[in-house]
Records
---
Amino acid sequence: MGELAQYLVTGVGLGCAYALTGSGLVVIYRVTRVVNFAQGSFAVLGALTVTTLLAAGLPHGVAEGLGVLLAGLVGVLVGVVATGKPGTTPQAGLIVTLGLGVFAYAVEIFFWGDQPRSFPGLPGAVGGIQTHYLLIIGVTAVVLGATALLFARTDLGRALTATAADPYAARAVGIDVVRMGLFAFAVGGALGGLAGVLITPVQQVSFDSDVALVVSGFSAAILGNLTRPGLTLVGGLLLGVVQALVGGYLSTAYQSEVALIFMLVVLIARAGRRDLVEAA
Amino acid sequence: MKWAYAVAAVGALVLPVVLAPGQLTVFILLGLSAMAVVGLSLLMGYAGQVSLGQAAFTALGAYTSGLLSLHHAPPLLALVAAPVAAALAAVVVGVPILRLRGHQLAFATLALQILLLSVLSGAQWAGGAVGLQGLPYLSVGGFELDQDLDYAYLVVGGVLLVSLIAHRLVHSRVGRGLRALATGEMAAEASGVPVGAYRLLVFAVSAAFAGLAGGIYCFFLGYLAPGSFPVLLSIEYVVMAVVGGLGSIAGALLGAALITVVVQLLTSLATQPGMPSYAPSVLSYAVYALLLIAVVLFVPKGIVPTLRRSL
Amino acid sequence: MIEARDLVVRYGAATALDGVSVSVRAGEMVALIGANGAGKTTLVNTVCGILRPAAGELRTSGRLALVPEGRHLFGPLTVDDNLRLGAWRDRKNRDTGHIYQLLPELVPLRKQVAGRLSGGQQQMVALGRALMGRPDVLVIDEMSLGLAPRVVENLAGHLRQRHAEGLAVLLIEQNARLALDLCSRAYVLEAGRVVAEGPSAELAGSTEVATAYLGLES
Ligand SMILES: Nc1ncnc2c1ncn2[C@@H]1O[C@H](COP(=O)(O)OP(=O)(O)OP(=O)(O)O)[C@@H](O)[C@H]1O
Ligand SMILES: [Mg+2]
């Protein structure tokens, strides 16, 4: 297969990880209005856990599943701290999650040290493309599809949307708003964990990989203003592909800047448009 | 509260003489953090903006001083250029990004800092990832500041200067306008407060403070690298500002002092023989995190404003 | 159904309810009237368990549903989804069919997004959402606010019918005439206290109430 096709598949694979991280941010933001700065930590914790589980002899699949599960549980913990105390504003929640992200550093270094780690993914290659990238793409498609169905087709999903739209009315019909928020954090944690577990075989992870991940996830999600899952997926894939192309044809040195510049451009363009609307 | 200021002033003057050499370094670094944090606290408290990129301005100031003095500019000029360059950079990026709010501005400032760091790491003229080395000491009219003690008093002077400027700003028409701006923007806009200009002014002043800290840092240490100004340094500044109390100058100073001292105590504990090698970083991350979370949840106004109210 | 005695509710230091006693018995239709800021919504939110009283006793029995002040529909969801969530507490009874029978006006709207409906349509959906939980008591906060007389008439008609079938109602209304007309008993709330209560006919006859709330000259 040609070079371009390889770059495209690699880019889509990376983009899937960004989309998963970004979707986690979106789920949490929609329901709780908290921008979860610790979103990257879910990925790191999930991935590092998998390294330990695999080393302990657990088979592939089980180890990865447990890593994702752990990330979901950590998500609930983050949610409890960031939203559990009555009267905590979303702004305070953002700072709290920032603190929790730093706390995760302490935990990660304590258990895994500060050196990068990795574990093997799906071996082999198809037409010059690592099979693992195809696995990333397949799993992401299934999981994001299932998440979309959860929101669109189930009463639990409707209740989550309802909580996001109008917490007062949600309480009036008997929806437990705090519980919904924690559920969103669990989903967001699991999505973040999945991103880390999927990407680590092709990209090493260390305790401070979380900043790059949360920034990429945020860049993906900002295209849909942190509320639109579909645009988040588009944003993630776009970022991944552009990064892979920049890395392939220009220089790998500029790869990580793509997400940052993309984010700034989207933010500033949107703010400009908002100003125009307000002035009108 | 008067006595607290007196204690602080006496401490700042006496401590440099009585501290051991290692402790003097900590004292200087504390003062440098305090300068950046006074600026950040002003920005966050009075202009209602969250910045996760304050250390970018420290880096800008440091590199400005470093590059100028490497190219044989007079050191004093190189030092003065640090806050000026930081403020100019703040004005340039501030025009587009200060239209952002809350988490958007937080991420935008973070992105800018990461971009700056990667530009610096890639730039030949800035020494790349190795950075700048062999920088001269600061010298003023033939007198060379080559002792830690000199820098300790220079930093005390810097903190004083920064605090006085911040105090003037807070108690000026600008400060009153900014307070209105942080509490109810629309009302302030309607009453004729030039919201955008004031916000940009605070952003620039806050950047200048960090830039000055960076400039002193460059002469004190004699070398610079992109790695000296990690994202974590910005987060550290935020922790200090929030713990002390946003918008409070005394709070910024107390926050910087408290966090530095606590982390220092823990580090010396963690480097005792028999402690694992990762102990210092684990402990300091945990302290930053737990203090930040505890203060946001249980002392949301920060320590100094809360104490003021209960006294 | 609802039995509140000496309720005290505070927002921080401000006391919004200061010893309020109100009761609604099974099948009864009771009005609560009072000026803006009297504490009506506060009482409603307390009765529905959204606010916690600082003192006093509150007992409720049977199922209770709320039509909140200002409608508060779930804007991004369809009318049908809004209705389904009305039965959130009752996982087995989320079929919306019976609501469309009770409120046929909603049938053509079922797939529409609630946030884009007119005020009158929204109030009808809010009523339907509250009825979805098959309540024994319905609490309606500001039923007629901002609605055209014909729409109010229509809503009132639906209420009468539900009441005739045994539903108890606590109706909060700015339009005191309408409230006294619909309900057999009423409370008058002023600055967080009940200043008058009794059968509607009696209250309508009392000069104070008439001047303050019915706009009549004494
Ligand atoms: N969330 C709140 N925080 C603080 N004070 C509140 C809050 N909600 C209501 N109040 C105050 O409590 C008092 C009662 O308000 P409430 O909304 O219960 O009145 P109301 O009778 O429903 O008024 P309206 O007719 O305008 O709906 C008012 O003085 C109001 O300002
Ligand atoms: Mg009301």
---
Amino acid sequence: MASIRLSVPDTAAKGEVIEIKALIRHPMESGFRRDSRGETIPRDIITRFECEYDGQTVFAADFHPSVSANPFLTFYTTATVSGTLTFRWTDQTGRTWSESAEIRVT
Amino acid sequence: MSLPISRSLKADTSGLTRRGLLAAGAGTVFVSAFPFPAGAAPEDMKAAIRKAFGKGELRDGRVSINTPPIAENGYSVPITVRVESPMSEGDHVREIGLFSPRNPVAHIAHYYLGPRAGRAEIATRIRMAGTQDVMAVAKMNDGTLWSAARETVVTLAACVVL
Amino acid sequence: MRRLGALALLALSACGPDMAKGETGFETPQSGSAFLKPDTRALQSDDFANPGFLWVDRGEALFARASEGGPACASCHDGGEHTLEGVAARYPAIDDQTGELFNLERRINACRSRHQGEPPLEHESEALLSLTAYVAHLSRGVAIDVETGGAARPYYEAGREYFFTRRGQFNLSCHHCHDRNWGQSLRGDTISQGHPNGFPAYRLEWESFGSLHRRLRDCDTGVRAAPYPAGSDTYVALELYLAARANGLAMESPGVRR
């Protein structure tokens, strides 16, 4: 079960720059560690994160193995219209999860 | 190395034998004090920057990095990168790349922004294989590249797995 | 090699006469978080970014979900008489039905079998960790207040015995580090008083969330002693001694530790 914590303001004034925070539950196994028998633990990481709002990808990120487990991210966007922010994240195998948040713009 | 307990300085030489004994049994176990195993060689950071951003000249300025000067350990170091930019249609940050001179994969993460971001700033938490100068590179919409580096001292985690 | 040197020296320093049993080496208990660097402390107190909340959140979802065999935890424990607020601060505690000592994990498993018709969850499984995180979090800020008399007494004594017994290649007891050397640094780390109030906790070095017993396994392994399994009787008894030693200290779970 992948999951995410999101911090998005419920309301904002049009044109206001809003702070968005995300905390994604994922081990971000780097592929460099070994288990107790000396076998390499295969890489298992999230590679891509995107935020879509008002018809556009307003922010995206590529993650590599140096991103900490349970990735944390803060970024900003400008409030334009009331609607949905969609967050999508993908692991190296192409598995994708998504979650959304509503914002009311006044 | 600071001796943890001052009384230990008065210990007699029988301690040396004992220490040898302990060291002998120690080869086997344990999680590393760092997020990457000691054997993982660092990648060439300059090459990784070139790969991500091409050949353009890296200029100093406009980018600032904030990390704690001393991090408790290398598993999760908070980092904030801010780029001076009006973030207008005509003048904005397109990409920010984070790079490590010491981790086995030099490219840490890459962020894609646009004028709608309103503010050219990101924060995240990263792994660090020891004390190092992490670099951030920003690419503007006019193609210019700006960069900054910042040192973070990563203290060793506790002895072994403690 | 150098890190072994540090521990070996600590081992030597501990060769003096043992302190009288029962002495804790501190007047008022101080939380492990007081021995962290400010950034780690800040992460713990950030209710959004503290990664432990990923487990609290999942625990809350599991708590609300009806089980196959019976009602959801929440249908019995949603406020009212059976509210779980403040409950975790009284654990480990004696279970009236069996007379045995239950830590929170055992109590949750007992509810599963007695009231939900579900098999027990494994200690350290994601589901049990998450439920424990949620229930422990309902006691955040509540002072630990465990009972050590009556039927709990033998468990308390067994836990105390474990705490003062030297073990492992380093021949050190819990007492040597957490009573006699707290505040000392051990290769970049600072030894705390060894309290359980932050657990279950997110440990940066685990890059994950874990129970108090997982932490105890690390301490035992650190002195090269064979650790007990998480959920073992030995660690549940030790957990009672640790809680009693920390009586009055505010619960902090989900803690964040190095």
